[in-house]
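Hi F.,

I've been meaning to write this up properly since the lab meeting, where we talked about keeping a consistent format for the predictions we share between groups. The idea is simple: the sequence comes first, exactly as it goes in, then the structure tokens exactly as they come out, then a line or two of notes. No screenshots and no reformatting. I'm using this chain as the first example so we have something concrete to point to.
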Amino acid sequence: AQKVRKAKTDPEPLPSEVAGLEGRPEALNLVTIYAALAETTPAEVLAQHGGAGFGQFKPALAELLVSVLTPIRDRFVELKDDREQLDAILARGAAQARELGTPTLDAAYKALGLVRG
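Output, unedited:
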């Protein structure tokens, strides 16, 4: 949340349309982050927050960021503390990667004329 509050912005309020973000990379970045977290479009974010200053928008973005990332962080901590479950997930991922990658690797070996042992 503190990183969002400290993010560089300009003094102009948010426009009501995406075209108004042209030449305002910092504003575009924050609006795009909000849209991604809210699973919406920048146009919809601007329809909701257009005309507002960053003093209002940044706290809303920070709140959304915390609400989206908290469950992810909680799950990360849970997995970090359960080594057995983490090892099972890693083993499952390795098996999937092996299954998906074997045909490609076989084709590469064949194309290079290498013997696969």
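Notes:
The radius of gyration is 23 Å.
The chain has a mean pLDDT of 94.

If this format works for you, I'll send the rest the same way.

G.
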